Amino acid sequence: MSWNREEIAARAAQDIPDGSYVNLGIGIPELITQFVPEGREFIYHTENGLLGMGPAPSDEDRDLDLMNAGKKYVTALPGAAYFHHADSFSMIRGGHIDVCVLGTMQVAANGDIANWSTGAPDAIPAVGGAMDLVQGVKNIFVVTQHTTKTGDPKLVETCTYPLTGAGVVSRIFTDLAVVDVTDEGFQVVELAPGVSFEEVQKKTGAPILPAGPNNRKRT
Amino acid sequence: MINKEYTSVAEAVADIPDGATVMVGGFGASGSPIELLHALIDHGAKDLTVINNNTGNGEVGLAALIGNGQVSKMICSFPRSSQSKVFPKLYREGKVALDIVPQGTLAERIRAAGAGVPAFYTPTTVNTILAEGKEHRDFDGRTYVMEPWLKADYALIKCEIADPLGNLIFNKTARNFSPLMCMAAETTIVQTKKLVDRGDIDPEHVVTPGIFVNRIIEVTDPVHEDVLIAEGRTYP
């Protein structure tokens, strides 16, 4: 037993406060819009100049000038606003966005994140807005599978891929557990149903503390 | 009487010289000034440095300009996307250089140029390989890197509504980098879907004031990159 992609997104959505301005990365983070807890409202920001982003349109309602940062067609909800890129990244860099939920390649026990490049010599570097987001947004959540497709840990002692940002991640949601980055490294917040702490430790590339009555926070 | 109207896209780009730095508005397909880009291909200026968030898609617009061998360097945040094929190939062959800039830093560098601010400090890239060699400085206990302004000789911009003075209104997320680029270029060339009379735009609704715009061309039925690609079109 573990959480599937939808369940990871639903679990992450539980930890986003009502009224938050939220920026979602591509992949599992996008699923969060389907799992907003009852009674809460999130306002979605997309880097390319829209606050109040709504779901994908039907084909006949599609507007070619209305996209999200992943270049997918979206809609604008009542109360939405359009703005240029400097204003958009002022919202990010200026600390006005409450939560950013990102996928990752690696996240380290000190909160470092690597999610933009493998560093391979033939790779074409492409950073987009990731480095701005991790520095500017108040809370950086990571949603990811606990291991790679080949079984290597994605939660590691030290990132081996080039960093997107250092010491920026606060909480990680995987198929196996919810994990905090604390002053003493990783600490489990919650285990997925049927998953043991031993399994999480085994699949984590760094020491990890079990959940406690007073989980430590990063200061 | 000031009238910035030009009669054709060809006339509007005719003086862009070899070696020019050209900003191109748009984020992916939305806001890409395809008619101006195709006019620049027809014009043939070479050895261009182009500033855009991406590197174009398919074999039209910006990708076609690169594919035609007119671009020697791209400055962008995200050079590869699902439909970007021309740039990755030429980059791997060593035929076009790449300067990778984080998206928010790219936007702010352009804005700074337009605002007359030669440099600024940002936390973006601190402790990453993209900060190597850059000046670092602490403010209130946090480390930042210095980023210089980014200017251009020309900007190619697409908008929705313009008047003869160059006051502009954009459409939805097609706005993106365009208002910043209008400020940062020595000569800003704008294709507008609709050209209205002086006074027809409510001053409260102006997004880019005309002082930042030099040339206006009405292109009443602009093509869209996504549509051209879906139709399998190429240019020239």
Give the SSE map.
The complex is a heterodimer of chains A (219) and B (236).
Chain A: H1 5-14, E1 21-24, E2 43-46, E3 50-54, E4 75-82, H2 85-93, E5 99-102, E6 106-108, E7 113-114, H3 130-136, E8 139-143, E9 155-156, E10 169-173, E11 177-182, E12 185-191, H4 197-202, E13 208-209
Parallel strand pairs in A: 1-2, 1-5, 5-8, 6-9, 8-10, 12-13
Antiparallel strand pairs in A: 2-3, 3-4, 6-7, 10-11, 11-12
Helix pairs in contact in A: 2-3
Chain B: H1 9-13, E1 21-24, H2 34-43, E2 48-51, H3 61-67, E3 71-76, H4 86-92, E4 97-100, H5 103-115, E5 119-122, E6 136-139, E7 142-148, E8 152-162, E9 168-169, H6 178-184, E10 185-195, E11 215-218, H7 225-230
Parallel strand pairs in B: 1-2, 1-8, 2-3, 3-4, 8-10, 10-11
Antiparallel strand pairs in B: 5-7, 6-7, 8-9
Q: What is the gyration radius of chain B calculated from CA atoms?
A: 18 Å
What is the end-to-end distance of chain A? 33 Å
CATH class of the domain at 5-26 and 90-209 in chain A: Alpha Beta
What's the CATH topology name of chain B? Glutaconate Coenzyme A-transferase
The H-and-E topology of chain B, N to C, reads as HEHEHEHEHEEEEEHEEH
Helix fraction bin of chain A? 10-25%
N-to-C SSE series of chain A? HEEEEHEEEHEEEEEHE
Q: Strand portion of chain B, in percent?
A: 25-35%
Strand order of the largest sheet of chain A: 4-3-2-1-5-8-10-11-12-13
CATH level-two architecture of the domain at 5-26 and 90-209 in chain A: 3-Layer(aba) Sandwich
Which structural class best describes the helix and strand composition of chain B? alpha/beta
What is the fold-level CATH name, i.e. the topology of the domain at 5-26 and 90-209 in chain A? Glutaconate Coenzyme A-transferase
Total individual domains of chain B: 1
Any low-confidence stretches of chain A, pLDDT <50, length ≥5?
none
